[in-house]
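[Discussion] Sanity-checking designs against the backbone

I'm trying to build intuition for which residues belong where. Below is a C-alpha cell string of 373 positions. I'd appreciate it if someone posts a full sequence so I can compare it with mine line by line.
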C-alpha cells in the first residue's frame, strides 16, 4: 500500500469516528429528519442528541413502525433523558426539538409538552418551547446494545429552567438540589412503557434526511369548539393546556397546536398517576420514649384507617431505638399541618398521658418517587 493511500485510509477512519459529532462552531441542529420509507411508514427517523458523558452533539436513528414498547430485559435498558424547557426560559439556544415557532419533532414533541404541563403546571403552564435529548452510547464509554427508556427531566422551578442541561452530571446535581425530577416512561408507577431501540449514526446521514414536518402542524382544534382551522392563533386561543384540560380527545397549548389523543392520554395519565410524586413531601417523625401502647391509643381515637385525613398518601409506624417512629407521605406539608391542628391536637389533649407526651422530632424530605403496586 502506498503512503498516499495509507494516509487517505487513516483520514477516512478518523473522520468516520468523528462524523457523529457536530462542528462546535456550527449552528445547533434541531428537529427530526426522515431517511427512506414512503408516506407514514417505513424508513427511519434521525434526530440530534447530546452525549450525556461529554455534552457533545451526536445523532441517532430510530426505525419507524417497530413495536412500541420493544421487548427488553429491564437490566438491559438505559435512560434516554428529555429535559423540557418552559416558555420564559433564558437558555437562549436552539433545542434538539422545538415546539415553537413550528413543531419539528411531531411524533413525540406534543406528547412531551402535554405531559410536562400536566405534571408541573407551576413551571410549564405558560407553555413549552421544546426539549433536548441526552444519552450515552458506546462511542463515549456509555451504554451498549440496550433498549432506551424515555425519561422526562422536569424543572421544579422557573429559575432552574434557565440552565441548559447537556450532561448526566448536571442532571444528577440538579436532582440532588431538588431543581429537577426525573420520570422514566417504562411502565412503572402508572406511566406508559415507551421503551425503544435506536442507534448512533453520522452527521452526514442527518444532513441528507428530509425534514419531518407534518402538513397539519398549524392545525388546531379547541375541545367543544368549532371545526379545525388553519392559521395563526388568536388571543382567545392563547391559553395553556392545563387551563383548558388535557383529558379530552384534543388539548391546546399556548401555541395552539393540536395534541393527539396519545399526547392527551400521556399528559392526563401522568398527571393523575404521578402528581403525588411530583408534589409530595415525606416526614420522618420520632417520639422519644414513645411506646406501642401510646400509638395504639392515639390511632384508636383518630380512626384514620376508617376516615383518612385529607392529603395523606402513606403512613407507617413501628418501634425504633429510643422510642416510636413514623414515616408518612403527604400531598404537602400544609396538609399535614392541617391534620395536626384539626384532629391530632384535639385528640392528644383528650388522651392526656395515654398518648405521646414528648414533642416529636420531625424531619421533612422531598419525595422523588412513589411506587404503588
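Best answer:
Here's mine. Compare freely.
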Amino acid at each position: 500500500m502506498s503512503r498516499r493511500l495509507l494516509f487517505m485510509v487513516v483520514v477516512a477512519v478518523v473522520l468516520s469516528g468523528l462524523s457523529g459529532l457536530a462542528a462546535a462552531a456550527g449552528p445547533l441542529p434541531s428537529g427530526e429528519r426522515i431517511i427512506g420509507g414512503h408516506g407514514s411508514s417505513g424508513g427511519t427517523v434521525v434526530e440530534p442528541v447530546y452525549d450525556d458523558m461529554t455534552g457533545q452533539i451526536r445523532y441517532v436513528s430510530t426505525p419507524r413502525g417497530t413495536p412500541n414498547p420493544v421487548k427488553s430485559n429491564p437490566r438491559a435498558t438505559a435512560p434516554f433523558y428529555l429535559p423540557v424547557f418552559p416558555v420564559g426560559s433564558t437558555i437562549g439556544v436552539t433545542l434538539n426539538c422545538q415546539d415553537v415557532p413550528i413543531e419539528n419533532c411531531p411524533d413525540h414533541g406534543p406528547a412531551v409538552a402535554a405531559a410536562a404541563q400536566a405534571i408541573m403546571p407551576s413551571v410549564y403552564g405558560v407553555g413549552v418551547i421544546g426539549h433536548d435529548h441526552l444519552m450515552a452510547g458506546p462511542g463515549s464509554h456509555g451504554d451498549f446494545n440496550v433498549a432506551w427508556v424515555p425519561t422526562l427531566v422536569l424543572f421544579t422551578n422557573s429559575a432552574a429552567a434557565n440552565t441548559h442541561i447537556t450532561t448526566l452530571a448536571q442532571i444528577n446535581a440538579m436532582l440532588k438540589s431538588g431543581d429537577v425530577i426525573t420520570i422514566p416512561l417504562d411502565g412503572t408507577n402508572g406511566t406508559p412503557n415507551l421503551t425503544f431501540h435506536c442507534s448512533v449514526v453520522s452527521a452526514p446521514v442527518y444532513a441528507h434526511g428530509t425534514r419531518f414536518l407534518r402538513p397539519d402542524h398549524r392545525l388546531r382544534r379547541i375541545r367543544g369548539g368549532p371545526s379545525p382551522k388553519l392559521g395563526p392563533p388568536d388571543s382567545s386561543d392563547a391559553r395553556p393546556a392545563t387551563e383548558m384540560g388535557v383529558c379530552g380527545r384534543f388539548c391546546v397549548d399556548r401555541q395552539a397546536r393540536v395534541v393527539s389523543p396519545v399526547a392527551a392520554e400521556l399528559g392526563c395519565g401522568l398527571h393523575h398517576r404521578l402528581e403525588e410524586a411530583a408534589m409530595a413531601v415525606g416526614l420522618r417523625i420520632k417520639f422519644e420514649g414513645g411506646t406501642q401502647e401510646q400509638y395504639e391509643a392515639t390511632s384508636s381515637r383518630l380512626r384514620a384507617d376508617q376516615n383518612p385525613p385529607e392529603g395523606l398518601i402513606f403512613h407507617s409506624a413501628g418501634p425504633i431505638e429510643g422510642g416510636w417512629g413514623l414515616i408518612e407521605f403527604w400531598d404537602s406539608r400544609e396538609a399535614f399541618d392541617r391534620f395536626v391542628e384539626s384532629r391530632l391536637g384535639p385528640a392528644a389533649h383528650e388522651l392526656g398521658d395515654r398518648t405521646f407526651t414528648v414533642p416529636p422530632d420531625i424531619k421533612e424530605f422531598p419525595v422523588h418517587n412513589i411506587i404503588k403496586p
